[in-house]
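ugh ok fine here u go
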Amino acid sequence: MGVPIFCICLIAAGIWIIFISIKQIQKQTKEKERLKQEREAQLERMRKEEEIRLEKLRKEKIEREEAEKRVREEQARARAERDAIYNAMVAAIRPVPVVAAEEKAKKMTISFLNSLTYSTLTVRSNMEQLSNYVVIDTETTGLKCTSDEIIEVAAIRFRGFEPVEKFVTLSAPSKPIPEQITEINHITDEMVAGKPCFQQIAASLVEFIGEDNIVGHNLPFDLKFIVHYGANVTERKRKYYDTLAIAQKTIKKVRMKWDKEYEEYVEDFNSTGISDYKLKTLCFYLGLPYQGAHRAEADALATGLLFQSLIDMRVTKKS
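structure:
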């Protein structure tokens, strides 16, 4: 008996199904392989792109570091040049002897200083007269001349805007120097031990200043102290220039704006100006040398240079 046609058809159908299944499996395998290759190719491209990006960042970093290094080197070179010029200028200033008298000068009331007139700078100011002056600066044990004392005084004479002579000395107070004052100016009790008190050198200071005009940064403060302790420089006719007041009229202050996040006023960096009128800030703003902050000689020298810069801005209109 032969194989029924139905069985033959069933076997053929099974073989066909197996064939089709094999084909589908092969197709799926090829598709998976293709997708795998595409993913590997994509990952390779991404890897190469990342390598290129990182290499670019590395080169940019190197270039930035080299540029910053060049800037630092240039700044260091310029600073060294300025320091050399500054040190040469300081070394060229001739110190004068400070004479200490045995008898102390008498203390003075200073209420009359409230009516003292301070001069301003205008385009009509006489440049020749302005170029000759004496700058004074004091370091004190506090802010009240009636209860605090002078522990250092410096006076520097300028001729033709050049510093030529200096009168510099420490002076011993009657009481120990407060720690907070030493932290500011680094003047200690040991440094002033054995020095004359200011009243003993007051006459010597007045003699040094002579008839020159007087310049100072916050000059009323220094005048109150030196006059109260016997150096009455107001007896002779002269002009008084306060670089603090002149700077406030000459250089505008940076605009402040309210910061909602920090709930306080901060500098508006879109505006131009200066944050405050401290001597150090002004010198930095104007590119003037300033070393040894809060020591009388350094402050006096910086004030003298600042005075010239303010004259350039207000009288000769140099920016």
